Structure formats: C-alpha cells, structure tokens
Amino acid sequence: MALKAGVVGAAGYAGVELVRRLLEHPDFELAAITSDSDAGVALSKIYPAFAGITDIEFSNHDTDVLRECDAVFLAVPHTAAMSRVPDLLEAGVSCFDLSADYRLKDQATYEAWYAPHTSPELLERAAFGLPEITRAELDRAAADRAAGTPALVACAGCYPTATSLASYPAVSAGIVEGVVQVQAISGVTGAGRKCNERTHFCGADENLEAYGAGTHRHTPEIEQILGLPGRIVFIPHLAPLGRGLLSTVTMQLTEQAAADFSLAAMLERYTAFYEASPFVQVLPEGVLPRTKSVQGSNCAHVGLAWAKETRTLIGIGAIDNLCKGAAAQAVQCANIVFGLDEQAGLAHMANPV
Amino acid sequence: MALKAGVVGAAGYAGVELVRRLLEHPDFELAAITSDSDAGVALSKIYPAFAGITDIEFSNHDTDVLRECDAVFLAVPHTAAMSRVPDLLEAGVSCFDLSADYRLKDQATYEAWYAPHTSPELLERAAFGLPEITRAELDRAAADRAAGTPALVACAGCYPTATSLASYPAVSAGIVEGVVQVQAISGVTGAGRKCNERTHFCGADENLEAYGAGTHRHTPEIEQILGLPGRIVFIPHLAPLGRGLLSTVTMQLTEQAAADFSLAAMLERYTAFYEASPFVQVLPEGVLPRTKSVQGSNCAHVGLAWAKETRTLIGIGAIDNLCKGAAAQAVQCANIVFGLDEQAGLAHMANPV
Amino acid sequence: MALKAGVVGAAGYAGVELVRRLLEHPDFELAAITSDSDAGVALSKIYPAFAGITDIEFSNHDTDVLRECDAVFLAVPHTAAMSRVPDLLEAGVSCFDLSADYRLKDQATYEAWYAPHTSPELLERAAFGLPEITRAELDRAAADRAAGTPALVACAGCYPTATSLASYPAVSAGIVEGVVQVQAISGVTGAGRKCNERTHFCGADENLEAYGAGTHRHTPEIEQILGLPGRIVFIPHLAPLGRGLLSTVTMQLTEQAAADFSLAAMLERYTAFYEASPFVQVLPEGVLPRTKSVQGSNCAHVGLAWAKETRTLIGIGAIDNLCKGAAAQAVQCANIVFGLDEQAGLAHMANPV
Amino acid sequence: MALKAGVVGAAGYAGVELVRRLLEHPDFELAAITSDSDAGVALSKIYPAFAGITDIEFSNHDTDVLRECDAVFLAVPHTAAMSRVPDLLEAGVSCFDLSADYRLKDQATYEAWYAPHTSPELLERAAFGLPEITRAELDRAAADRAAGTPALVACAGCYPTATSLASYPAVSAGIVEGVVQVQAISGVTGAGRKCNERTHFCGADENLEAYGAGTHRHTPEIEQILGLPGRIVFIPHLAPLGRGLLSTVTMQLTEQAAADFSLAAMLERYTAFYEASPFVQVLPEGVLPRTKSVQGSNCAHVGLAWAKETRTLIGIGAIDNLCKGAAAQAVQCANIVFGLDEQAGLAHMANPV
Q: Chains contacting C with at least 3 CB pairs below 8 Å?
C-alpha cells in the first residue's frame, strides 16, 4: 500500500519539483498539494508540463488531507514552515522541511539570521537532511519513525549542499586552517517564483552579479555542517541559466598538510567518503564539474584542484539547485526515513546534452 | 531476457540521447555504441552526465556486436545509414534509422533532395516512424518482425514531426486549400554537434535567424506525411536555446469549411485523433504550446488558433527536437515494433520549471 | 542652442532606450524624464548602466517642464498617450508617440482593436513614423513644424516595422495575391518591463512559444502600411533573448509574376527602394538576416528567398525591437521633423560579436 | 590629419571589437585589418554587423600597410605578437599588444607560464596598459613617442583588469594579509572564436563550470599588478552569456586594519582613487556591480562588501571582457599615448536594458 504524501507550497519552484518527483515515485502516492494563492487551480494550468499527466488541483494550505499523510514536504518560506510543522508532527505526519526553520541546531543563531523561533523545542529532534554527510541523523529519524515517532527532517539548503559536498572530506581531515572562502553561482530558479527586477528575464539575461556578499543566510548553515564557526565567508552570484549551482571552495591547508599534500590521495579520500552514495560522483583528476551534467537529476559532481604556491585546495561542487539542492534531496531523505530504496523515484539522469 | 540494442553514431546529439533512453529502458540492454571519431573513448569522457552511471566505451562503426543485436538505432548522417542498413537487415537486425535515407517513399524525390540511393529496393519495406500518424506501417513492421523479417523503420525528422502533429488532423479532413506555410523554430541541438559559426555560442546566443528558407530538405517529407505534394513552403529558424522545437502551420480553409468553422469542434477532432496516444496533448482552446513543457520528454503539445478574417487555421506543435523529434520517438517506434509497452523507457516528464 | 526633449514613461524599456539615445544626441538636450511609479528616483538607481553618466531623476508625468520642450517622446501604453498629446500639441510641443494611439488612420479600426479614441480629430494630422516607407508624411510634418504647427508623429510598432521593411517593396509592386502570412519572433524586452509568468527568467529561458496567434493588435497596422486590408495573418512568438526581432513574411506571387520572377531582380528592386536610407541593408542573395547584427543599433537587415514550387517570395527583416522597432526609430523621425542630420545620435553600430 | 591604425588578428573577437572601435574613432583611420585564415575576405561577410558600414577586406598578416601605420593593435595569441612587434617598432609604429607577450616584467615568469621569449629586451620598455593603475607607464610611453620612439603598450588581460580595479585601492593601502582569492566568471566570448566542446552553444548554454582552477596564466599578471607575488589563487569560471566578466576578490585584512575598518571610508578611498577616471564607477554602499550595466562599453563598475566576522573585504569588478577587458581599453591606452582625448571613440554607453 502506497505511502501518502503531501506538498505544502507546491506552486513554488522547489514545490513543483517535489510534485514531479512524488508523481514518479513508486512508493509514494500524492494525496494533496497546497498553495495559498493558487488554491482550486489545476496544477497543469500553472505548469503546463503536467498537461495530460495529472489533473490534480491545488488545495488550500489548511486542508485536512495533510494530516492524513504519511509524509508532508514543506516548500514554503522560513517561519511559514515553523507554523505548520508542530501540528503535523502531532498528527503523526513525518515532515520534510525545505526551509531553514529547523536546520540550525542553535536557536540563537537561527534567530540572529532569520526570525524568532516558535518551536525551538523541536530543534534537537530535527534531523539535518544532507544524507552523504549527516546520514546518522537520518538513520536515527528512520528508527524513531519505525518506533512510532514521526520524523522531522530539515533538508539542507542548496548552496550549503553543493559547498559541503565539495569540502567536507577535506575539512573533516583537520587540515584546513583559517578562513574558508565559498564563492558560488546559481541559476535563476534559485531566486524563486516571485517576479522582480532581478528575476525578470531582461534583468537576468546576459548578466552576472553577486548578491548578499558576505551576508547571506546560508553562511551559518555552511559553518554548522563543516564545523567551522565564524570561519566561512560566502558570496553567492546569479548567472543567466535556469537550473544549476556551482560552488567553489578555497581551503588553505596548514603548512604541514601542504608539505605532504597529494591531490591524488585527496581524491581517493573523497572517493572513499562518497563510496556508499549512489548520487555523488568524484571526478577524475584534471576534470572539473559542469552543472549541466547533473541538471534535472539528484546527482552531484565534485572535483578538486590544487594551487600549490598558495597551499590552496580548491573544491568544486555542481548540483541542480532544485534537485539535489532541494526537492530531490528531500525525497532522498524520505526514502531513507521510510526505509525505501534510496534511489526510488530518483533514477532519471540528466540530459546528456 | 533483455533485447540487445546498439547505437551507431552514438557520439552525436541524437545518438547520445538514444543511449540515455536505452540505458533507462527496462526491456533493452545496450550492447554497443559506435562512433568513428571517438572509438575507444569512454562515453562519460565526452558526456560527463554519464559519470558513475555507465563505463561503456564507443566502439568502431564496424563492430560485429551490432550484427548480434535485436535492434540497431542509426544516428548518422544521410547516406551513412544507407551504407549500413542492408547488411544489418541481412543479419536479422531490426533497424531504426534516424536519418532521411528511408523516409521518402519516392526514390526520385529522395535523390532530388539528397543523393543517389544505394538500396532503393528497401524503400517500400521501410515503415515511416511517426506513430500517431503512420501507426499502420509500424504495426505491419511489428507483424513482419514477429514472423521473422527484421523491421526497417525510418524515423521521422524533427521538423516534420512537430509540423505534422500540428496539422494532420485538419489537413486530413480535406478542408485546407492552396499552399500551407510552415514556419518553425529550433534550438541549437538541432544543428548538431559540429562546431561552426552558427553553432558557436557567440554566434547563436542572443540571435534569431532563418536558414534554408523555402529550400530545406524536410519540405518533401512534410509534403509526403500530409499528402500535399508541391504545396508546402517550409522556413526553419534558429533561436538561442538548447533543446526545443516549435512549428507554426498556417492553413487556409476553403470558403465552405471556413463558413462552418468552429475552433472548439476542430479541437475535438484533434483530441479524438490523438486519443490513443499517450504522448500527444491537445491543449485547451486559448492555450498555446510551450517547448519547455515538453523538454526532455517524448511528449508533444499541440494547440490551435483561428484567424477568421483570412480563413486561416493556425496549428502549433511543440516538441523536444532530440526526444519526440528524434531519439525518444525512435524508441517509441521500437516499443511498437517489438510488442513492448509503448511507454517503456519514455515515462519521465519534462522539468516543470 | 540645443532642442529640449522630454520622455514620458522613461522607466519602461522603450522609454529608457529613448533616454539613452537623447543623452547621446548632439542636438537634443534631455530636459525631463517622467514616470508615475518612479517619480523622484534617480535613473541610475533603476538602470545602473547610467551610473556616472547622468544624475537625472524621474519627474512626475504632469511636470510642467514637458510643456517647455521642443519635442516630447511618449513611451506609455495606448490610451495613456492619447490623454496627454492634445495638451502638449496645444503648448507647441512636437509629439513622438511610441504607442498605437495615432497610428491607425481609421478611427473605427483603432476602436475595434484598442479602446475608444479621445482625440480622433488628430488622426489625420498624425504622421506615421516609418521613415523608409512613410517619408512623405514625415516631410509634411517637418514642413508644418517649420511653419509653426507642432508635429504629431505616430511611431510604428516593432513587429510592423520589421514586417513592412521585409515586404513593402514586393507588395507595392502589385504582384502579391491572397493572404500574406507574417510569422515573427521577438526577444523578451518586447513584452515590457512588467513581471509575470511569461517574462520571468524561468518562464522565458529555454522556451519558445507563440502568443496572440492571429489576433495580435499589430495586424491592422501591418495591413495599413502594406495596403492589404483583411489580408494579413500575423503570429508573433517569444524566444529566449533580450533584444531582437525577426519577421518572416510569406507572399504568394500571382501566376504571371511568378513566371517572370527573378530573385536577383527583386533584390535590386529592394536595394533601389532603400537606396536613400542609411539604416536599411538589403543583404546579398543567399544571405539571410541575423538579429544580432543589428542589436543596439537603428539598422535593419532585410533578406529574400524564393520558393519556386509554391510561388512564394519570402521576405525576412531583422531589427532590434527597442531600437529600430521603437526608440531609435522615434529619434530618426525626430531628426527628420526637426531638419537635423537623419543619423544624428544614431551612428553607433551593433556589437560585431 | 588622421592617424593611421592597423589591426592584426582582426577576425578574432577582440580583434573585431578593435575594428569597430577604430571605425568609430574620430582621430584614427583604419588602414589595414589582417587575418591569416580570412585574408581577401570582406569583413562584413564574416561579421554581418558591418554590412553597409564598411567594405574593408582582411589583408594578410604580412601586409606592408602595417609598417605605414602610426599605431598597430595586435589581437593575436601569445608568441604571435612577439614575432611581429620588433619589426613594427623598428618601422616607427607604436604597438598596442593585446596578448600577454609583453605584460610580465620578469622574463623568467613569462617563460614559466607561456613560452620562450624572443624579444625580452623590449620587456623593460613596454608600458603596462591598465590606465587607472599604471598611468605613469602610459604617460612615459606617450612622452617617448612624442620624442620619436614608438610606444610599446602591453594591454592588460581581461581577468586581471576586472580583478585589479576591484582590489588595487585596498591592497595598495597595505592592509591585506595572506593569500588573496580571486574567483571570476566570464562570458563565452572570453574563450575566443575557435569552436570546441566548451564554446559550442550546446556545451556552454545552461552550464556553469570552472576551468584552469588555480593554474590559469593570468595568475602571475594579477600578482604583478597588485604587488602580491605568490599570494594569488585565481579560479576563472565560464557562464552562459556572450560578453561580461565579473571578478570577486576576497581580501583578509590584518587584525589592526579590521578593527578600524569602515566600509564607507574604504568606498571613499576607492572613489578618490578613481576620481580622475572617466570609465571606472565605484558604486554606492550596498550596491553591487552587474556586468550588463557595462556591456558594450569601456566602463567598469566596482563595488565592495565587508564580512566582518572573518575580517574579509570583498571587492567586485564588472567589465565587458572584450571592451574594458581588451579592445576598448587598448584604444583608451592609444588615446593616452597619442595625446588624444582619453574618451575619444569610447563614449557610447551600455544598453540600459
């Protein structure tokens, strides 16, 4: 019997990608998709790619159907998730939140970057959703769920996902000193469905720009995942493509680590680290990731380079910001939490060209 | 036991899309992929999207493995297919040719537009591969194959596919008079993998142009499918996107047909015509096709508009030129010929955004 | 002493292109730029390309400065222009309107396609602004202005400009029969500054679609310019680029004209027709226009092709929809009306790559 | 009497941009444009934007006309320039080299990164061409030329230009410690006219990738300009746009400098530093550069941000890689060397949208 799934905020970009993934998932049955602004409207009317595939209509956010689901995925802005999760958990629904609301373990940090937290008691219970790095937390949530306590998974942000995959194996080796610079570039779907000067085609086309330089909210999240409090400077950029996110991390090695350094050995460390993951590919020496290679798929490509003169290890991660950076990774987390095949509904590869 | 499939010309764009489709196909096992220029090279080296998915390497075009396949898909330029198909058929291999070599029933027409034909005796046997319109030919080929005669399917060209889907139900009603104008726009993958001024990013980006205006080789093919010899003027255009093809057909109705005309009724006719097809969607009145809605999928979206003043019925068809316009449609044809589920390996929908 | 110019609706795309042209114009001095929504804001704040170039701020639409100008360019939506032009003319200001308000000579036609006309008495006086075709009207307006009556110029629309340049010399030869099909493609700046699903980068990127098929307001305008009432079917399309517009016109020649037809001769006729124009280039036989070749400039490239079988002459015109299709052409009209060098402020060529 | 100019390598992207600049230059007359592969071909045949503007044809690289020019601009690959410059200087021609051949003051450094130097004796004489930073060298070359010794100007590379403009005022204050990270993104024109997998539209479109990470040849050039030998790690990226280059520089300040740091004060320092430059705009606090704002113009926009926690000053520079990053800057250098108005031929601003 299929597991029932619901998507809150299904009219947004991450939300509709979730809908697509769940429709193609062999074990989940899509029970409800909600949107405040588009309630009552057919999904295929807003997203014609669904024409002939499903007649499903958006429901209102407060639909009771959500409470009958096994899993609800929330793709609404921060604070909006916080207002719904406690009730859903209460009703026995496992929640997979794509917002930042439950990602940061430290309430004060969350509140410094976002807003007052209305259910901080759930922070400890929340499992951080970046399987290749926080698998233990997801396994714990899976065990809890099997024992009767619905899971709460705080799915990682897009920039933190690509950044961490590109740097965690090196950072966790304890060989990186000082500040770590993260410069990332994202396609415009990362900016969301709302229209403004920046997301208007005529603003984004043929343009490159940085935004939130050094002040972006993903900074504390990256610091938390990598265990580098106060040591991350993060600068996101916008480029003229739809989907795709490339994160380039510069890590200065300690003098000792640099003296011994072998790029081949580090690539082996990365490869071993991601051995068990069906989704992360560590590219051969000399080959750097291309976002197009993973577009539309839950895969991540990771590559390394070594700038010997400055003792800088460069880690680069490429993902599709809506897939591995949001919706597909959320489904991957749900697969783990529900004890399903980790690749269920996630097998389709990127267009080769 | 899985059917063995081979792809000749697998390093080109249509070829590599075939590879991806066959890798994901539940009933076909990819036995060989060939390329003259890249023989011996790993597929994932040329197309990194395959990294971690397959280790397969390109073989030389003349590999014996092809002769052991149940089906061979040829994605090589015209005349190149002609030189290989007879031998493959002889060896019992069903051939699915993506070139124009066996599409035109009339040898003289083929030779007027392309080159001397080296196996014209096969033209009659060849089944034209546009399932929604030439299903009977494909069913015949399926029956022949089941009876021991390998099939030869000439898969429709990309522009003829979108054009015909957009206009056949109207044209076949016998209500169209005079010349039919076809103006189509394609993304750059349609121009192929070869690099030149036109396909260089800096030539194609931010540019619109027509090419082969009124002289394009797809003209006789469209005339053949629609049964309108000498009545098609076809003008293709290039636009700055990768995949996507939109064909806009203007059909002037006879005075009588125009007097009675009802757009709603014509939409019903189209809908009924494509009822049995899992891949063609006729959009509601007032909604016109968007290529993005079908990108990466084997679907086609068709829409109609009526310009009463000039008695012009406008039919518009949107496809992904590498999918429904080439590789995915070829697989759809193979599914029919081999008696498989018509949607096998073709279920994945377009990215919703 | 410099002529004073004002721009109403200067925050829109055509408006800001006008501002740039007037800032670079040797004979005009920009006295006021107006916007209702951005009054009081610095131009460079909304359009950073002006940083360090000008400090000018938007004024309110009702600023008295407009009444002191020699010329006011109106880049506001239809009906908005109608409400302002009479007063400005009264105050002695020559008006160059980029909306449709005064383009259609026939009031009934305007009202059928747009809205009730509030100053139809001005329709006869209005000079249609497409210099290469309606030069006589502009020369008359110039003479009137010199004699003391301010000019009213209704600048041609973008699609009608490219379409007419591509077809007028042939149509005016009286050799075209039946319905003329116009299929055009435009970049997204043509859709204007307002944000919606269609203009959002993630909606327009990697997408092709038709809109207003057979029902677009530019239909009567094209019919008027070409003198083909009820004989135009016009289908615009949107493609993923910022600026650029390509119009492809299919004209069926009479049997007699077709029998005698020589493409070389027709190209000569076009070349002679545009001889005096510094801005229109008729390309050599076999070369078709590319929008990139004219992007950012007031130039138009025109090319022809001949589909003999169907007696179809194909005319193709490429322009920059904001330049020759709007603002730059308006300045060209002003140059004529004020007796200035026709190329004043319009000499800069397109980026070669 | 007009100065005679020649362009060697005029068929490449930087070369043809030079041709356009010189055609529009009031003081230079274009005497010869050379190309080995396109000798004898009309410029407008390869770059249709020139249709109707000039009939000039490419000459062979060895044309004597070059020796009669006052100035020759070389837009050929490194080592190709080296082979031509000595003769031209000998003939009294001032040379403006867009390659790296004479940029690096230290011969050993050049040879470590490029190739053996065939005229190292010219390295000392060569003036580095980045006016806002190395003005003194250009003034010296101007004086020498006026006194009879032709000038040799080594025009700065594109990445080094944007990078240095974004960081020099801070670095020259002596407050930056350790390694400086430079992550830059460029449009595809930066990769040049040659066609390959990376520059094919279907490779570059909808894709982000890094290349030459930590090993790019512009590293020593950036180190030289900033006076930071061995302290630069430079990672360039490719994004799907034609023209545009954004360089993001992270500079860690010393503890003392950080304690006193005021972003407003640093912006004042930058503004004062570029006061005399008509081309460099320092944006207000909180506003970051957009490449589109300077596309097609010789302008550069510079912005700053401060990440206090990590003591990181972020400098961002946006240019058009073919203009301020190559051809237009070369013309700016020539204007200085020939004692012309520094803005001659360089006044046209970017498209506002």
A: A, B, D
Say whether residue B45 is in contact with chain D using an 8 A CB cutoff: no
The yes-or-no verdict on residue D1 having pLDDT over 80 is: no
Q: Mean pLDDT of successive 10-residue segments in chain A (353 residues)?
A: 93 98 97 94 97 95 92 96 96 98 97 97 97 98 98 98 98 98 98 94 98 95 98 98 98 97 98 97 98 98 97 98 98 98 95 95
Q: Identify the CA nearest to A160 among candidates A86, A244, A221.
A: A221
* Range D109-120 average pLDDT: 97
Q: What is the DSSP letter of C325?
A: T
Helix axes B131-146, B327-337, angle to 10 degrees: 40
Nearest chain B residue to D45 by CA: give it: B197
What residue ranges in chain C does DSSP mark as E strands?
A: 3-8, 28-34, 58-59, 71-74, 94-97, 127-129, 152-155, 176-186, 209-210, 232-238, 245-253, 280-282, 300-307, 312-319
> Chains C, D: CB contacts under 8 A, how many?
93
What is the phi/psi pair of residue D126, to 5°? Answer: -60, 135
Q: Which of D249, D268, D241, D233 is nearest to D312 (CA)?
A: D249
CA gap B111, B101 in Å, rounded: 10
- To the query of whether residue B158 is one of the catalytic residues in this protein, the response is yes
SS3 A129: strand
Q: Smallest Cβ distance to A195: which of C200, C240, C242?
A: C200
CB contact under 8 A, A48 and B17: no
Q: Is C92 on the interface with A (CB under 8 A)?
A: no
Number of residues assigned to chain D: 353
Domains of chain B: 3-155+326-337 (3.40.50.720), 158-319 (3.30.360.10)
- What's the whole-number mean pLDDT along residues B12-41? 96
pLDDT of residue A2: 86
Q: Measured in whole angstroms, how far is the alpha carbon of residue C249 from the centre of its chain?
A: 17
What is the three-class DSSP state of D73? strand
The C-alpha atoms of residue C316 and residue C292 are separated, in whole angstroms, by 14
What does the alpha-carbon distance between residue D184 and residue C69 come to, in Å, rounded to a whole number? Answer: 46
* CA gap D294, D317 in Å, rounded: 11
What is the predicted pLDDT for the residue at B2?
86
Q: What is the pTM of this model?
A: 0.97
Cα–Cα separations (whole angstroms), residue C226 to B173, C165, C237: 33, 10, 21
Q: CA B273 to CA B249: how far, in whole Å?
A: 18
Are A353 and B293 within 8 A, CB to CB? no
Per-residue pLDDT, C171: 98
Q: Which of residues 187-246 of B touch A (CB under 8 A)?
A: 189, 206, 242-243
Q: Which of A190, D267, D264, B179 is nearest to C308 (CA)?
A: B179
Which tokens in the block code for residue C191?
Answer: 């859709």
Looking at the annotation, which residues of A are catalytic? 158
Å between B65 CA and nearest CA of chain D: 29
DSSP category for residue D123: T
Q: Does residue B310 sit at the C interface (CB-CB below 8 Å)? A: yes
Catalytic residue among B69, B95, B158, B299: B158
- Taking contacts as CB-CB distances below 8 angstroms, the residues of chain C near D50 are 349, 352
